[in-house]
Amino acid sequence: MKSFKLPKNFLLGTATAALQIEGGDRNNSWFRWAEQGHIQDGSHCITACDHWNRMEEDMALMQALNCRTYRLGLEWSRIEPEAGKFNSAAIAHYRDEISRLLATGIRPLVTLHHFSNPLWLEDRGAWLNPKAGDWFERYVAYTAEQLGDLVSDWITINEPNVYLTFGYIAGIWPPGKQNRMIDYFKGARNMILAHIRAYRTLHAVRERMGRSDTQVGVAYHLRIFEPKRGRWREKRSAALHERLFQEIFIHGMGEGILLPPAGIGAPLGRGRYQDFFGINYYSRDMVSARLNPLTLFGSLSVKEGAAVNDLGWEIYPEGLFRLCKKYYRRYRIPIYITENGTCDARDAFRTRYIYDHLAQVNRAIETGIDIQRYYHWTLMDNFEWAEGLSARFGLIEVDFATQQRTIRSSGQFYGEICKEGGVTDEMLQRYFSG
């Protein structure tokens, strides 16, 4: 292990999603899903971290961690509780939160859609409805008009591939459909085109405000798919996984080009529809040739003997370097690591995980790759979707019964990295000498 120093202007921060931390909202698809008893540990999202009422406390914790940037989500169901009717109190709350962030020197990166739908959208078929892009653009335009003077950095949609895989292939997220490949690709097409329209809208609204520093992108969930034994059928299956799970979204959202079976051509025109390339990275999958419809094509497994986290995901830091290298070579635009973290309830290996992944980021930068930001997932333990409250990803431990927050040792380590802009020899000695 070696010390390293990140570039002076490199931004380190944390990321959260509105539904996972705010609590109190009953008008969204995940509230209904929890009410129906679909959460694995029997927990619920109705309280989560109660961040809606505790944002000042949580902002103080961000300051304690020396965060220079924060990726926060907006809850569409709060802002537009009924189709075409906007809640001025909700947007005022978000405006207050963002204003407070800016006042403390923390730069916001705002996510507009992060897996959660208003019930009126869910009941109309959600992202399978051909009008979903119209409705999303209306919401984006309103939000940009209300917050655009404060916010320059935006993510339109978070991990569309994960949303569609778990909702329409695996069936463990709302709406709970299984093996619906046609729906997966219909939703992919609609979300791709919705992003392009949102990209244009965000730029147009802020240009009318006289703002020329708008940065808009997607948070892509990217994995490394590798053949389990190197056989040609496994290589073919791995390539198919990469195309259907990742490339159709990257080409579509980034360039406007629809790849079959999500579509063909460029319905909204070819172009560059991302100002940065957002990477959410967690793990690698080994692919066999055996068909498994729950994972698109081919069975996925963990490399034999590999280190894994509490959810059984392989810990593979080099994958982050490989993905940054691949997509920077393709697009030559700044890369933001919009999510990277691990589930570790005992905080036994998160500190090393952070070091190893940031070391790969530094390695990439030293080879000329323009990585400008890193957002650790996540600030604090939260409602982790189908896993509920039991999956612990936070730098900060949360006692959900009392809402007590405690910075973990890994959080202290990350806070020092944020302060120092890297890892010093003294930090290595203190955190890893034992």
What are the main properties of this structure?
single chain, 434 residues, alpha/beta, TIM Barrel, eight-stranded parallel β-barrel, two-stranded antiparallel ribbon, 14 helices
SSE map:
Blueprint: E1 4-5, E2 11-15, H1 18-21, H2 29-35, H3 51-64, E3 69-73, H4 76-79, H5 88-103, E4 107-113, H6 119-122, H7 132-147, E5 153-158, H8 160-168, H9 181-208, E6 215-227, H10 232-255, E7 277-287, E8 300-301, H11 318-331, E9 335-340, H12 350-366, E10 371-377, E11 396-399, E12 404-407, H13 409-420, E13 422-423, H14 425-432
Parallel strand pairs: 2-3, 2-10, 3-4, 4-5, 5-6, 6-7, 7-9, 9-10
Antiparallel strand pairs: 1-13, 7-8, 11-12
Walk me through the structure.
- This protein has 434 residues and is α/β, with parallel strands linked by helices.
- It has helices at 18-21, 29-35, 51-64, 76-79, 88-103, 119-122, 132-147, 160-168, 181-208, 232-255, 318-331, 350-366, 409-420, 425-432; strands at 4-5, 11-15, 69-73, 107-113, 153-158, 215-227, 277-287, 300-301, 335-340, 371-377, 396-399, 404-407, 422-423.
- Strand 6 (215-227), helix 10 (232-255) and strand 7 form a beta-alpha-beta unit.
- Helix 7 packs parallel to helix 9, helix 8 (160-168) runs antiparallel to helix 9 and helix 11 packs parallel to helix 12.
Short description, anyone?
Helices cover 41% and strands 17% of the residues. By secondary structure, the protein is α/β, with parallel strands linked by helices.
